[in-house]
Design goal:
Chain lengths: ~325, ~325
Amino acid sequence: MPTIEDVAKQAGLSRTTVSRVINDQPYVAEEKRQRVKEAMDLLGYVPNSSARRLRNQKTETIAILLPNITNPFFSHLIEAMEIKASAWGYRVIICQTHEDEKKELDYLELLRTKQVDGVIMTAVRNEWSKIKPYLTYGPIVLCNENVRGANLPVVYVDHEQAAYEATRHLIQQGCRHLAYLSGGNDSIVAQNRQKGFLKALNQSGLSPVLDEKMEGAYTIDHGRDVLHSLVQHHPNVDGVFTGSDEVAAGMIHEAKQLGLRVPDDLAVVGFDNQAISLLMSPSITTVEQPVTEMGEHCVETLVHYIEHPSVLFRQEIVFRHQLLVRDSTQQRVTMIS
Amino acid sequence: MPTIEDVAKQAGLSRTTVSRVINDQPYVAEEKRQRVKEAMDLLGYVPNSSARRLRNQKTETIAILLPNITNPFFSHLIEAMEIKASAWGYRVIICQTHEDEKKELDYLELLRTKQVDGVIMTAVRNEWSKIKPYLTYGPIVLCNENVRGANLPVVYVDHEQAAYEATRHLIQQGCRHLAYLSGGNDSIVAQNRQKGFLKALNQSGLSPVLDEKMEGAYTIDHGRDVLHSLVQHHPNVDGVFTGSDEVAAGMIHEAKQLGLRVPDDLAVVGFDNQAISLLMSPSITTVEQPVTEMGEHCVETLVHYIEHPSVLFRQEIVFRHQLLVRDSTQQRVTMIS
DNA sequence: TTGTATGCGTTATCAC
DNA sequence: GTGATAACGCATACAA
């Protein structure tokens, strides 16, 4: 494994000169620059990244914290983030927290131990007081998440408004007994969605159907479970706002198994506009988020803070969402032949 | 940011002793061990990982190369790998190659520049002669992939046998005009599947329907396109073996749109047993791979080679697959009331 | 324009 | 048991 020293010897020059060539610095005679390059090629030299990190106090690596990569929302987010990070010359370490407070903190340690230059959190379980100290060691950006009291860049869509629109739509379709599924933990995102849900109900003088079994639902299987719970305990429910297309898909699938008609007996709204929402029959009414743009923006913001260190300040970037109405809430228009 | 030196001063001891405590080494008096620990707590000391890397010539990081994280097969693989790697104390860098030869090599450079200790490749576009040189810098393990001439650990299922079984099943269901979709690039995996497909056909004296439009299909949209191509150019096809549930789902969805009945007019087999294969109606007959076990095994093999350096030798670990017969190939049995 | 010397923070070697 | 000291490989202040 050749070092800069070996290259210097081979070229008959000093380490400094070689270093200058490596880093494209000026004040190197063109002739010597060539000599160095030849020596590097000859020896197959590559700068040792560990040494560079130590010397430069930079890792060119970022960590992305997320609950679970198999959730399509997150895998799409990561896809965009990795591409953008890579374009900026950064590596991406993936950190699945599985909604575990301790794991979340363990991964934040990457910042303190200088293994990454910055962190993007797409889900936060710890309270702000636990997170805040890590800002000493590098920037943190929140994506699709929010934390009470946190003063750092936050990227998301207006979940309250989205839920409000979706719920209004359900009411317009004739639903009168509506249930809300958070689509995640007791995060602020979930709370905001609930706010929007309740607001729409209040405006129409309706009251919500709530059930603790419906909290924390964010997988297909949760959707199945919830549907059973609904049928058993709240058979009059005729419309559901869920926090994810997976939950919606699970509910619809199970509803069909039980002979319920969607949307006639039960209308369902999902979230995220995943591939599955179009493939299901009936197709799923859902809320689209600009995942790619959000991911890219997060990376750019983070990289900016990494390369221009300064005190982080609260900065909310709200992306536009869109309600996509499909068959799971709307009667298909009968073909007139 | 306190260093080991600061801790030493604070404790009134030498760097060496502090280092011994950090690394849980013997030959430190219990009393001093305590003093060091107190000093570390007091100063909030954390070992600097960059310095450690340089000194130990180890990064405790691995790179996972994959085409695209949004493909559920890969996201499930990564999930398992990340968990296992984390349990072994390794970080995971995610590297999306997007089927690009150059990106693949760029990411392999992580090995040469000492940014990772080892690499798992879940897709290979370059030929062996391009990959081989990197083995000088660290171990590489292939997952769900194979390369002609490669002498390194390879983890996969028997795709030829799986395709054979799936195709036989289609024939048993009465299909006589069968088409094959590789479900990926012109990889050895795809070739093996094709072998199995053709073997089953030969045994029954049938000949395949082939179409260049069907190569490289591995997304829902590809599935849609392929179906159109099929309807247009090969309307007599009554059975398809696809390389992924996504493609199968896309085909089925589009077939329904066009008024084709599945499986009556067209039977479809997928691959991977993704969530979607159960949610679609009809549910999709598919081949299950033990993704989690495969991912875990890859990481364990790689970590083994990292921690016990030795010449890599060819070593094939074949996991068991299973054909899951569902409604996309089989008439639903009518309930007798 | 080039080279020398120093330090980034850690751990291993060796002497005490 | 403990502590000086020398690397690990690189990049920069400073001298020439």
